[in-house]
Amino acid sequence: MRFLTKLVTTTVGVVCTTASAYLFIDEKKRHGVLFAATISQAPNNNNNNNDIIQPDQQSLSSPIKSSESWNWNWDGRHSDMNKTRIVRHIYLIRHGQYQTKTKVEDQKQLTELGNEQADWIGLALAESKIPFTRFIQSGLIRAVQTASIINKHIKFNRIEQDIDLNEAFPFLPEPAGRFADSVATGRIELETERMERAFRRYIHRPLTSQTEDSHELIVCHANVIRYFVCRALQIPADAWLRFNLFHCSITHLVFTSDGRVICYGIGDVGHVPQERRSIEQGHNNDVKGVARLCFIMAIDLSKELSMDLEHMLNSESIGEQPQELYDFRHVPNIDAEILN
């Protein structure tokens, strides 16, 4: 008997933003194949495994294993490492929806929907009871307004402002597409330098002087967050445009004293009602349509399950908001899970 197990509901890619991924599991053989992968999950213990998709290194578009080892001194602080269980939590928050039909930065203020989104995330952060230790915003009006609305709920005593967190265009993305001819090389160099400066300022392991866990909020912009995530996870920085972020979404990174980086969520938006989510002005998310696209992809990869999938495609439950596995308000115990 086959069934579908829901794995992920956070923002994952540009095309399948917020789409749920599904793992197909054969209870008798105990193996599974993720619709976006081609790797068997179980050892080949019998001779009747023609239905198991086997990895073929030559045909893969990218290697299964990275050729680069983890750089433990990625933040230049490894020599100062403390052998402690102290960790840093960084919550990167994208601003709310804003006016885009203007080229004047001060006029790119939050829309009515953007104000609502900021209110939703402020409520969620307040309800989390997380003991925030720092609150930082970029210098652009949409981030300033978002931070102000959030602070009505969490009532932090001081918000810092850093213009190095302003939106920018980092490395020319790969694939570059329409950006190849439209972005000046000089501009990319300047903005990448600024974003890297901000990265080194805020994205690093706990300081040697730190005596307890810290929880830092940074309200900034999609490109900045995506660049930070790629750099922190040691993913090629030119991959930053391969995933997207909802307005007022939360990206949660955790840094241990020995230099490990754990991502607990990218673009989590479970605190915003589904019908009030957006990526850019005039473009709200069609979760049902994206879910259907993912099911179609799954059908192509596992035709045996087409009957089960067709049944799911015709189900009214596809349009419902999926239950989310990640919740920034209930983070697993870092000491027990990571450092023991």
Automatic annotation (TrEMBL):
Keyword flag Hydrolase: yes
GO cellular component: mitochondrion
Annotated SUPFAM superfamilies: Phosphoglycerate mutase-like
Documented EC number(s): 3.1.3.16
Gene3D superfamilies: Phosphoglycerate mutase-like
Keywords for this protein: Hydrolase
Gene Ontology BP term (one): positive regulation of mitochondrial fission
GO molecular function: protein serine/threonine phosphatase activity
Family: Belongs to the phosphoglycerate mutase family. BPG-dependent PGAM subfamily.
Official protein name in the record: Serine/threonine-protein phosphatase PGAM5, mitochondrial
Organism: Rotaria magnacalcarata
